[in-house]
Amino acid sequence: MKQLLFLLMLVITNVLCAQSLYINEIMSANETSLLDEDGDYSDWIEIYNASSSTIYLNDFHLSDGFSDIEKWMFPDISIPAGEFLVVFLSGKDRSVAGNELHTNFKLRSTGEYVILSNQLGLIIDHFLPVLLEKDHSYGRLPDGTNTVGYLTNATPGSTNNTTDFVQFIDFSQPQGFYPNSFHLELSCDDTIYY
After folding, report:
1. Theoretical Cys-Cys bridge with 129: which of 46, 111, 115, 185, CB 3.0 to 4.6 Å?
2. How confident is the model over 10-65, as pLDDT tens digits?
3. Closest listed residue to residue 174, CA positions, set 185, 166, 165
4. Do residues 107 and 114 lie in contact, with contact meaning Cβ atoms separated by under 8 Å?
């Protein structure tokens, strides 16, 4: 009975801590930024543990679509508090603890979803599709926050750099086809050049 209670407490603690787990940075057009163990420039994501506790990723999943959020499963590994984990989105499907991790899917540089879900099948975090230029990444600044933007110099496995950060631009109208003209406003915390 004590073992069952201990396991239940461990699962509950891990689920609560997982709310502090973030997809912190993504790169879907890696041409010179980060080599994998095979010497390939595979796409990658960085996961950040913003909590004060180690989070165990056993039975957590990554996916590129909401129709199958359990597309690729993490091995029995953990991320210490305040640390980062890089996972390659290469299609090579490697999930051995202690080795480089590679998902069984890739990302298109034109943009796809990136979804992180826990062992209960709940979505912990996700990024919407974003178009990325070669060797540019998209991430959070500060790490683990809701402020996202483009990074001209990627920082896989470490904190995102403020000097290379271009915040997302807000458009006053959603994309689409309109029969009549209208006034469009763009806004962001950075400079916009037209």
Report:
1. 111
2. 445 444 445 799 999 999 999 999 999 999 999 999 999 999 999 999 999 999 99
3. 185
4. yes
* Confidence check: pLDDT of 66 > 50: yes
Cβ-count burial 158-176 (b if 16+ within 10 Å, e if not): ebbeeebbbeeeeeeeeee
* Residue 22 Cα distances to 7, 53, 182, angstroms: 24, 14, 37
CA dihedral 117, 174, 144, 89 (to 10 degrees): 50
In this prediction, residue 187 has a pLDDT band, given cuts at 50, 70 and 90, of: confident
Quick count: other Cβ atoms within 10 Å of Cβ 141?
Answer: 21
- The size of the chain, in residues, is 194
User: How many helices and strands, by DSSP H and E, does the chain display?
Assistant: 1, 14
Between CA 101 and CA 140 the distance in angstroms is 22
Distance CA 127, CA 169 (A): 16
